[in-house]
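Attaching the record inline, Q. Sequence:
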Amino acid sequence: MRAALGLARRGLGQVWPNPAVGCVLVGGGRVVGRGWTAPGGRPHAESLALAQAGAAARGAAAYVTLEPCSHHGKTPPCAEALIRAGVRRVCVAVDDPDPRVSGRGLALLRQAGLEVDLGICREEAAELNAGFFSRINHGRPLITLKAATSLDGRIATGSGHSQWITGARAREAGHRLRAEADAIMVGSTTAIVDDPDLTCRLPGLQHRSPVRLVVDSRLRLPLTARLVADARRVPTWLITAEGNPVERLEAYSRCGVEVIEVPAGEEGVDLAAVFTALGRRGLTRVLVEGGAHLSAALLRHDLVDRLAWFRAPMLIGGDGVPAAVAFGVDQLDGAPRFTRLSVAEFGDDLFEFLTRDDV
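Structure, as predicted:
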């Protein structure tokens, strides 16, 4: 099952709105087929593994990271494909919360006389597809806030100098996070001041650049910005408040930018409405890379599910730019708390991946 989970991870960032699934078929004491969800969400992992196995699938055991689908969509149900192939046993890591599937895939397999085991590596599988589960259960993608800070939580000096707080290995790890995200989000100030590309620039993974999201309630982003200039090459979505001038909206659209209008809110836009709109468009995993005001707003509204935190062994001081501006914590029991899921070292820098305690 852990081999299947490793295969499933290859699909992260590439398969939305579908889940990232891995499948390993074992027959005669050896692996006879492997598959993972293809870019765009199909073919499904089980179909690819069965095609690779061919006749060797008969009598084999299938290890699948998510309950096989049971509904007829753009592809036939994977549960029926496993039955037709003559698989004798199916081991499933976690059941699928999608109401079109939930429990039905397992029931189909059992009704056909297959042996079914559920729950092997359940926690790992649930974390892998936490974004898909969030979209199904809450109507919005999983939101991961990423920061690269000094030991005292600063992302730049008082003059705005920030390149580079963390070292090369940590920055490479940050690009791997981009490669596994459906979309990457910044606020308008970061987009204007830094004029970033927001692409994955790791060798061999440039094609895995996520959708680029800019939260810009007043349409401040210049049409000359990099995010606008190459919007036809890398998808760029501009999220703004309703009621902006039509001619300005059309100017972005002519450049290839998709404009998403949402109701206004305290932060210029209603952030809950923003992520609901992104969920409707199929996004399951959004990586937020700043800036300090957007980060604070997300924390204030309890919209941060995970933290991806890089820390460099340096101190900048109180005149530096914080990772998040004030967001209204007066008492410690009102502060959002996180549980550490993993820790890694990248050169001299430390990386912590954390989850909200109540998520």
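Residues 50 and 107 are 20 Å apart (CA to CA). DSSP finds twelve helices and 16 strands in the chain.

More tomorrow.
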